[in-house]
Amino acid sequence: MHIDWATLGAIAVVAAAVALTTVLLVAFAVVGSSPRPGRRIDGADDGGASRSHTATGTALAALCLVAAGLIVCYGLYLIIA
C-alpha cells in the first residue's frame, strides 16, 4: 500500500483553509448583524428597542451567510458526486 503524502497534505491544507474561511464568514455575519457599539438598545426615549444596526451591516451579514452557504453546498456536492 502506497500513501501519496503530497496529495494528503494538500487536502489537509485546503480543508483547514475552507473550515477557517467558513467560520470567519459566519463570525463576520454575526458582527454585521449585531448592534453598533456605544448606542443603547433600550433607550428611555421611546421605551422600546431601536434599530441600531445599519443597512450596510445587514447587507454584509447576508452576503457572508450566502457565501458560507455556497461553500457548504459545494462541499456537499463534492461528497455526493
Give an overview in words.
With 81 residues, this protein is mainly alpha-helical. It is built from two helices and no strands. The longest helix has 29 residues, at 5-33. The protein is elongated. The model has no long low-confidence stretch (mean pLDDT 86).
The gross shape turns out to be elongated
The proportion of strand residues reads: under 5%
Helix proportion range: 55-70%
What's the number of extended β-strand segments? 0
- List segments where confidence is low: pLDDT < 50 over at least 5 consecutive residues: none
Number of discrete helical segments:
2
Our measurement of the CA-to-CA distance between the termini, rounded to an integer number of angstroms, reads: 26 Å
- How many strands, what sense, and barrel or not for the largest sheet? none
Radius of gyration, in Å, reads 20 Å
Q: What pattern of helices and strands is seen along the backbone?
A: HH
Short descriptors:
mainly alpha, 2 helices, elongated
Short recap of the structure:
With 81 residues, the chain is mostly helical. The protein has 2 helices and no strands.
Secondary structure topology:
Blueprint: H1 5-33, H2 55-80
